[in-house]
Amino acid sequence: MSRIVPQGVDASTFNKALDELAAVVGKQWVFLDELPLSAYRDAYSPLADGEMLPSAAVAPDGVEQIQKILAVVNAYKIPVWTIGTGRNFAYGGPAPRKSGYVMLDLRRMNRVIEVNEKYGYALVEPGVSYMQLYRHLRQIGSKLWIDPAAPAWGGVIGNALEHGAGYTPYGDHFVMQCGMEVVLADGEIVRTGQGALAGSKHWQVTKHVAGPHFDGMFTQSNFGVVTKMGIWLMPEPPSYKPFMITYQKEEDLEAIFEVTRALKVNQIIPNAAVAVDLLWEASAKTTRRHYYDGKGPLPPSIRAKIAADHDLGMWNYYGALYGPPPVIENNWKVVEDALMSIPGAKVHFDRKNDPAWDYRVRLMRGEPNMTEFSIMNWIGGGGHINFSPISAPSGSEALAQYKLIKQRCNDHGFDYIGEFLVGWRDMHHILMIMYDRADETMRKSAYDLFGLLVDEAAEAGFGEYRTHLAFMDQIARTYKHNDGALWDLHHRLKDVLDPNGILSPGKQGIWPKAMRTSA
Amino acid sequence: MSRIVPQGVDASTFNKALDELAAVVGKQWVFLDELPLSAYRDAYSPLADGEMLPSAAVAPDGVEQIQKILAVVNAYKIPVWTIGTGRNFAYGGPAPRKSGYVMLDLRRMNRVIEVNEKYGYALVEPGVSYMQLYRHLRQIGSKLWIDPAAPAWGGVIGNALEHGAGYTPYGDHFVMQCGMEVVLADGEIVRTGQGALAGSKHWQVTKHVAGPHFDGMFTQSNFGVVTKMGIWLMPEPPSYKPFMITYQKEEDLEAIFEVTRALKVNQIIPNAAVAVDLLWEASAKTTRRHYYDGKGPLPPSIRAKIAADHDLGMWNYYGALYGPPPVIENNWKVVEDALMSIPGAKVHFDRKNDPAWDYRVRLMRGEPNMTEFSIMNWIGGGGHINFSPISAPSGSEALAQYKLIKQRCNDHGFDYIGEFLVGWRDMHHILMIMYDRADETMRKSAYDLFGLLVDEAAEAGFGEYRTHLAFMDQIARTYKHNDGALWDLHHRLKDVLDPNGILSPGKQGIWPKAMRTSA
Ligand SMILES: Cc1cc2nc3c(=O)[nH]c(=O)nc-3n(C[C@H](O)[C@H](O)[C@H](O)COP(=O)(O)OP(=O)(O)OC[C@H]3O[C@@H](n4cnc5c(N)ncnc54)[C@H](O)[C@@H]3O)c2cc1C
Ligand SMILES: Cc1cc2nc3c(=O)[nH]c(=O)nc-3n(C[C@H](O)[C@H](O)[C@H](O)COP(=O)(O)OP(=O)(O)OC[C@H]3O[C@@H](n4cnc5c(N)ncnc54)[C@H](O)[C@@H]3O)c2cc1C
C-alpha cells in the first residue's frame, strides 16, 4: 500500500517537512506507519474504506512545539488537522476532512493545569479527557462534578469546541467554557476574556472583557489551535434524583415535548431532558439479532415484544433533579404532574440490572462511563453516523419531524434509532443511523439517507448543530440566508487569520481561498 | 458658538454629506442645531463642558437606510457613533468618543418585532427601551419578565452590547441574547446562529450554528451596526421573595462574600446578589445636605446617624428567591443560615415607605423604574462616573479592594459610594464617583481618582467590564497580556471589517488604522 502525501505536495518536500517536524517533537512522536495511523481511521465511516486517511501524525507536548509545528507547515503549506482526544465518533472520529492531512495530535498535552474548588472551574489542555479529569478530581478529593459526553474518553476541549453537550445541568459545554488560549496560524498566542489582562486571576471566573468576545469564533472553526480552555464545573448538589419515564405510544412524543418545554424554559428540569426511543434504549442491553433476523425495520410486534421484555416504552424519558431534597421533592411534583399526565406513563426511580438506566444515571450525575458504547452492538460490526438537527421543543414540531425522519429511515430499510435532547430553549434531535459496514448496500443507503435528510431539514428550516466530516460542505450550503453572508464572513476571517490555509481546512465547510471551489 | 465638524473633513464636504444623509432619512431626521444636539451631551461628564460633542445626528428608520447611511459616510470617511437609546449615563451617555462624529441615532427603530410566549424570547430593534418592552408585554398580556438595567429607559440592545446586567436571574444580558442581525461597515447584513439558515424558525431558540459563534464579536466593539437582536425573557416564576439584609460593620464585607460565593456558585441565589454600601442606599431617600454640610467624606458619626435614621447597615444586601414557595422556603433557609450567620445581620422582607427598597424589589422582579435615578440628588447638580472593576467573589479580596478604593476616594475628598454585584462566579464592583459638576476642583479630582484607580486595579489584576468614553484607551492599555495580543487581533479584524474606520472609532480603544497613534 503506497504512502499517502498531502494534495499538491510532492513526496520529497513532504519528507523534509516530516524531518523538521521530527526535529521539533522528536522522532517517536511523528507517526508514519500503518498500525499507529490506523488509530486515526473513522471506524464508523459512512464512506468506503480508504477515504480520509492521514499522511502522517505529529504529537506536540506544548505550546512552543505547536508554534514551531505551525511555522513548519506554514512554510510548506501542509494542511494539518487538529484533534484533542480524537474520539469524535459519529462525526468523523479522529479522521481528517480529506486524505493527506498531517494529524496535529494534541493528546500529549493532557495537563489539568488548575482546579479551583472555590469558584468551581478547571483549566485544561486539549488532551484531557472526561475520564481523566474525573479521576483527577476524585484524586484531589474535589467536590466538583464534570459534565461528560456519553463516551468517557471524549475530550473536554474537543467536545466544547464541537458545541458538545452532556446530561447534567452544565450540559451546554460551549456556554460553560470560560477563557481560552488560542495559537493563531502565525503562531501568535491570544487569550480571551480577562486572560488578556496580564496577571489576571479572573480568567476563568468571568467571560467579560472590556471589548468583544472571541471565544465563540474559535469553536467549530479553523481559525486557531486552542491550547488551553477554562471550564466551569458544577459543585456537587446536596442530592440527586434521576428518573425515567416510559411512554407507550410513539404519538406521545407530542405531549412529551409540550410539557417538557415548560419544564425546561422554567428550568424545572435543569439538565438536558432526553427522550430516548425504544431501540436506542434496547440496544444498550440486547442486540437486534436476539429479536429478529429479517431485513428492514423491525415489525411493530417485535418492537412491542422488546418493550415488554425490557419494560421499556416507545419513548424512554430521562431527566434528573438536583438540589436539597425538599426542592427536589417540590420540583418532582411539578415534573410528575406534567410528565405523568400523559396516559400510559410509567415512572422508574430504580431499575435493577439495567445497564441503560445505569449509564444514564451516571452520566446525569457527571460520572463518565463507556456503556453507551455498547449500543454499537445493536448491529454487529457497527458503523453509524448521527444526524443532529436542531429545533425548538414544540410537541407538534417534534412529532412531525420524527415521523418524517422515521419515514425516510424506513424507506431506506433502517430502523429509526434516535433521541430528543432538550436544552434550555432548543431541542437537539439525534438520529443514529446504524449500518453494518461490512454490508456494501446498507452503507450506501445510510449515506444517501443522510444527504436526503440534510436537505429536507434545511427545507423545513432546521439546521444541524454539528455533523460528520463527509457532510460539512453540504450543510454549509444550507446556511444560505442572505446568500450565505455568514460564510462569506467565515472566509474573510479565514483568509486574514490563516492566509496559507493550513489549519484544518474544510472544517465546517470553511476552506482557505486556495481550496474554495467556485460554484 | 461655531459649528463642529468631523476631524479631517472640511466644512463644505461635510455639508454635502449632510445633504446626502438628509436624502436618505428626510431633512427632519438630520439634527444640526444646538437644542436637539444638547440631547447628545453627557450630562454627567467628568470632563469640562465642550468635549465629546457631535457635529450632527442622523436617525434612520430601518436597515436599508442604515446601509445607505453607511455607504455615504464610507464615501466621505465620516465617522459615525452608533447609539440605540443613548442612555449610557455614567459611561458617556449618548456622547460620541470624540467631538465631530455624526450620531447614528437608531431610536426610531423601536419595533418589538416578535414576542414568543412559548419559548420565552423577544426579537427587538435598537430603539426599544426596557420600559417600552415592559409595557408591550403587559399590553399583550404576556407572562414573561424583562431584566431591566436600573434606569428604565436603557436600551435592550444597547445594554446587552455593553455587557450590561440586571437584577433578575436573567441578569447577564450578553448571555441572554440569542441571535443578532448586524450591518457590516460595507452594508452587508449578517445574521448569526440559526438566523444564517434561510427560513429558520429557531433563530432565537438556540445560539448554536454549525460553525463559529460571532455574536460576542459584535459586542463592546465597532465591527458592525446591530439592527436586530433576540433576547431570552424569564417566564414569571410561581412566586418571588425579595430580601434585604443590613450589616453593621464595613468589615462584614469579607464574610458577606465568603458566603455569597457559595450561594451563587451553587445557584442558591439565582439573581445578581448585590451589597450596596450605606451612602448609595441612603441617597435614594435623602440627600447629603440633610446630614452634613462640611466638605470631604462624612465622619463616621454622621454615617452612624444616617444608618440609625433610615434603619440601614454599612452594607445593605439585596437578593431574591424565585420559584414555588416550598423551594423558596428551602432556599431561604440555606440563604438565612449563610448570610445571617454574620453577627449584627438584620433581615428585612418589607420596608415601609422606603423608596430604595421599593425600586430594588421592582428591579429584582423585572419592573423597570426610574428611582435609582434619584440617587443623583445625593449631591446637587449631579455629575458622576462609574468605576467598574471585575473580580471574583472572595471575601478577603472584596474587602482589600474595598479598603483600597475607599482609601483613594477619601484621599480625593470623596465618599465611597458603591455596590458589589455578584454574578454566577464573577463579581462586579461598581464605584459611583459623585461630584458637583459646577464645582471645578471637585470635577478634576474625580477625573484623577478614576485614572489612578484604573492603573492600580490593573496592577492588582483587575479589569473593568466596561467604562466611560474618557477612559477607554487607558483601559485598553491595561489588557497588555502578551503585548496586547488581543488588541492586535481587534485591530486586524477592525481593518478588515471597517477599512475606512467609520464605525464608532475608538469604541473600547479600538481605532481604525488611520487613527491609531503609534506608541
Ligand atoms: C455512542 C456515542 C455517544 C455520543 N454521545 C455524545 C454526547 O452525549 N454528547 C456529545 O457531545 N457527543 C456525543 N458523541 C459524539 C462524540 O463522541 C463526542 O462529542 C466526543 O466528545 C468528541 O470527540 P473529542 O471530544 O475527542 O473531540 P476531538 O475529536 O478531539 O475534537 C473534535 C474536533 O474539534 C476540533 N478540535 C479539537 N481539539 C482542538 C484544538 N485543541 N484546537 C482546535 N480544534 C480542535 C477538531 O476539528 C476536531 O475534529 C457520541 C458519540 C457516540 C459514538
Ligand atoms: C443610576 C444609574 C444606574 C445604572 N444601573 C445600571 C444597571 O443596573 N445595569 C446596567 O447594565 N447599567 C446600568 N447603568 C448604565 C447605563 O445607564 C445602562 O447600562 C444603559 O442601559 C446603557 O445605555 P443604553 O441602553 O441606552 O445604550 P446605548 O447608549 O444605546 O448604547 C451603548 C453603546 O453601545 C453601542 N451601541 C448601542 N446600540 C448599538 C447598535 N445598535 N449597534 C452598535 N453599537 C451600538 C454604542 O457604542 C453605544 O455607545 C446605570 C447608569 C446610571 C446612571
TrEMBL record, chains A, B:
Keywords: FAD, Flavoprotein, Oxidoreductase, Plasmid. Pfam families: FAD-oxidase_C, FAD_binding_4. InterPro entries: Cytok_DH_C_sf, FAD-bd_oxidored_4_C, FAD-bd_PCMH, FAD-bd_PCMH-like_sf, FAD-bd_PCMH_sub1, FAD-bd_PCMH_sub2, FAD-linked_Oxase-like_C, Oxid_FAD_bind_N. SUPFAM superfamilies: FAD-binding/transporter-associated domain-like, FAD-linked oxidases, C-terminal domain. GO terms for molecular function: D-lactate dehydrogenase (cytochrome) activity; D-lactate dehydrogenase (NAD+) activity; FAD binding. Residues 50-236 form the FAD-binding PCMH-type domain. Its cofactor is FAD. GO terms for biological process: lactate catabolic process. This is 4-cresol dehydrogenase. It comes from Sphingobium fuliginis (strain ATCC 27551).
